[in-house]
Design a protein that fits this description.
The chain is an alpha+beta fold and 62 residues long. The chain has one helix and three strands, in the order βαββ. The protein has a three-stranded antiparallel beta sheet, covered by helices on one side. A hairpin with a 5-residue loop joins strand 2 and strand 3. The longest helix is centred in the middle third of the chain and has 15 residues.
Length: 62
């Protein structure tokens, strides 16, 4: 299985509720799921989202 990753950074100025709402929106409308969250000492949130890469198989013939 292959994954596509997206990295997001939120400054400490964003509240937890705002960040949660943004991530839920990405999950519901883009198919992303949470892979990792790191909160740095200065309060910045570094988020990694992932989603499966779905490849269609080519059909031979007509």
């Amino acid at each position: 299985m292959e994954w596509e990753f997206e990295r997001l950074t939120f400054s400490r100025d964003f509240s937890r509720n705002v960040v949660t709402r943004l991530l839920v929106d990405r999950a519901e409308h883009g198919g992303w799921e949470l892979d990792r969250v790191r909160i740095t000492p200065d309060g910045t949130r570094r988020v990694v989202l992932r989603r499966k890469i779905i490849r269609q198989l080519r059909r031979l013939g007509g």
